[in-house]
Design a protein that fits this description.
Blueprint lengths: L1 H18 L56
Length: 75
């Protein structure tokens, strides 16, 4: 008895939810219009911009002199 009541209520909910759905407009059946793809004409290869010369020379990191266990340059 209880199962029949639950099924009956679910059927009523289903019918009411389907009845409340809105009708889809006429445009839904039409094929959407596709805009053509326009590709740009290739242009000449751009000239690479020259990189500026560095103004300072990089200093190398201090190294350990072999066998002494001390850094170079008195560090």
């Amino acid at each position: 008895m209880r199962t029949k009541l639950i099924v009956f209520i679910l059927c009523i909910v289903l019918v009411l939810s389907l009845a409340s759905c809105k009708k889809v407009g006429d445009d839904a059946d039409k094929t959407p219009e596709v805009t053509p793809v326009v590709t740009a004409e290739p242009t000449a290869t751009p000239e690479p911009t020259p990189s500026p010369e560095p103004t300072e020379k990089p200093t190398p990191p201090p190294t350990i002199e072999p066998g002494t266990g001390k850094y170079a340059e008195g560090i």
